[in-house]
Amino acid sequence: MKNVKGAVCAGCGAEHEADDSTLTCVKCGGMLEIVYDYDYIKTRLTREKLAERKEFSMWRYMELLPIEEASRLSPLRAGWSPLYRADRLGELLGIKTLYIKDDGLNPTSSLKDRASAIAVVRAAHAGRNTVACSSTGNAASSLAGGAAAMGLRAFIFVPERAPKGKVTQLLIFGAQVISVRGNYEETFRLSAEAIERWGWYNRNAAINPYLMEGKKTVSLEIAEQLGFKVPDYVAISVGDGCTIAGVWKGFKDLYAIGLIEKLPRLISVQAEGCCPVNRAIETGKPIERMDENTIADSIAVGVPRNGEKALMAIRESGGITVNVSDEEILETMKIMGKSCGVFGEPAGVAGTAGLKKAAALIPADATVVSVVTGNGLKDIVSAQKTAGEPMLLPPDMDALTEEFKKRNII
Amino acid sequence: MKNVKGAVCAGCGAEHEADDSTLTCVKCGGMLEIVYDYDYIKTRLTREKLAERKEFSMWRYMELLPIEEASRLSPLRAGWSPLYRADRLGELLGIKTLYIKDDGLNPTSSLKDRASAIAVVRAAHAGRNTVACSSTGNAASSLAGGAAAMGLRAFIFVPERAPKGKVTQLLIFGAQVISVRGNYEETFRLSAEAIERWGWYNRNAAINPYLMEGKKTVSLEIAEQLGFKVPDYVAISVGDGCTIAGVWKGFKDLYAIGLIEKLPRLISVQAEGCCPVNRAIETGKPIERMDENTIADSIAVGVPRNGEKALMAIRESGGITVNVSDEEILETMKIMGKSCGVFGEPAGVAGTAGLKKAAALIPADATVVSVVTGNGLKDIVSAQKTAGEPMLLPPDMDALTEEFKKRNII
Known about the structure:
The structure is a homodimer. By secondary structure, chain A is α/β, with parallel strands linked by helices. Chain A has helices at residues 38-44, 47-52, 87-93, 112-125, 138-150, 164-172, 184-198, 211-215, 217-225, 242-256, 276-283, 307-316, 326-340, 346-358, 380-387, 397-406, and strands at 4-9, 15-16, 32-36, 83-85, 97-102, 130-134, 153-159, 176-180, 201-202, 233-237, 265-271, 320-324, 367-372, 391-393. Among the domains of chain A are: 1-36; 83-109 and 211-387, 3-Layer(aba) Sandwich (Rossmann fold), CATH 3.40.50.1100. In chain A, the strands form three sheets. In chain A, strands 4-5-13-10-11-12 form a six-stranded mixed β-sheet, with helices on both faces. A four-stranded parallel β-sheet of chain A has the order 8-7-6-9, sandwiched between helices. Chain A has a three-stranded antiparallel β-sheet with strand order 2-1-3, with no helix packed on it. Chain A is globular. In chain A, 62% of the residues are buried.
């Protein structure tokens, strides 16, 4: 990889090769960060060159990705999700210039497809035939789908509470699925032990430094889709912390190579019932474990494994933290559906729910992007709590007319 | 519309303006067909011009669409779904060169988004503020989503059996949903009466001739994505008949303007428990009503309203008919998930299930495209019938090891 210099430990600063023989620091066990050769990349990735590219997926940004040149790429089309101008929604939230980035339209219907694409490509290139992770659901389905597309085996550990839709996806993709009677932390620990024991390729975002590099492509796209006019704010829901750190890395990379001239402020949205990252920002104290009390399963992470990276991203960007209740999340799901035609899962709309609460803090002339991280179809049970019920009627015009009158529809 | 000459009645041949004041023949009530000015279009839509276009959605093919020039377009990104080479799946099915077109990645997760995009754009341009349809589910959710994105009201009639996922989508998109205690035919009739009574814009594919024009974009894309080398066969599941007719129209349009040099043969796949179109082909008799006995709700149409168009398409193309059982559909869902990382709903994978059965009829060197018409997340209940169950375990390595041994996994 001519574009990658190596991997440096975020803890002790030790330098490593960027290969898959070790994913964490050999000296202190700390998490690694990928270091790019921006001077080299600058000469290869320009606005003009991007404008000519015909590849509309995350592979569009190969110069900024830790992918070996000879790699077989995943065939699934991850990335290049649509960015919608959302005026009606903006009006409802009190934000004048709002865009919705719908990452629910990825191959397995969540932003995590961006990370798993990197994982399966690197695993295959390293000659590994089995990948594994623990996940609240989306990382799992994206890894299972990506592995299936690449012809790899997948072992997936999910907490028992994972929504049926996500678990069914895993099974259809042919993964070995272990449903763990416990919370996310216990699920993670069991997966870590099993990965160690059987030597599988580790797609846990808490360990694997390459995943964040996939997630950052959402920011590369936002910038390019806005003609490299960087938004003032980017709102995103936060669980483990890896995604918001990835969002920040994407913008920083573009800034480093001179493709953008400023950086956005991040709006970190967590659930009131599980907000360890935001609480650390708000109190100035270290991250402390919290219970996982929220309907938004994808961000119900009591012990965020990428918490430090998330804190750094929020702080560096001069970010805002907002915590939202389950009621606010469900209400936003309906508001977004009705005003945009976009259906997000609870964690997927949490970022936008946060925007509604943070609107007063955002200047009137600001441009805001809110990322929908997962598709509402993944968790119909939650959506049903807010969707309401259809009118159930016999096939009869009189009955219909009467019902309409009763509801003041006509 | 400089590209559209008008609309001609498929029944009596009467000529009409292509506007929305009447959607069916004023003389005989027959269905209309849109007539294009191919000589004009030929000068505007060339391979070279397409290669330069930056619009990657169905609006890419504006010259071949019945859209008024000054129309406000739907913001949702319908179309330009990925076309995957599927070698492992092909091997399992006995087909050497196989591609999967994943239309489950459309905005509301089905091919029907292509049709509804046309409907909402035409409705808005005609100054209508309410759209309506009856549907087994996907036309419904696509219309509800499209209407929400355009700021229109939607009234949706679904048969009571429609899967929860689809109904929940409708409600989240803010549609007025009428769940009809009856089959698709009764649902259709009630919607037709209500549309007549209250003057809503009619998005029923049995009536509205513009919808097929949206559906045909799937073929325009297949051709372009294959570098205008037309596949020998295109497999698609058939319910009402409008989709397969649209698929055929797309290829015929491209042929008419000289962008492709041959036409594919269609593989019409229906469910054994509901195959009135295929039965008419096989017996040479007119289409006769059938019961709606299949798990594949999107193609459970006992009285296909676009049946004649479907028959014409299959016959003109020298097509093949295949009927598949629910077991074969569910088995294919798993095979496709495991070998491609693509998760389709029952009707979405039915086309591929048919391929497995028809493989013996297909020459070894043929190129085949199978269209996945809807996302598996729309109907988790059906998927669960074939997905199997995860291993449910405590967070404990000993328990895990023992379970793996029992299952011969390690």
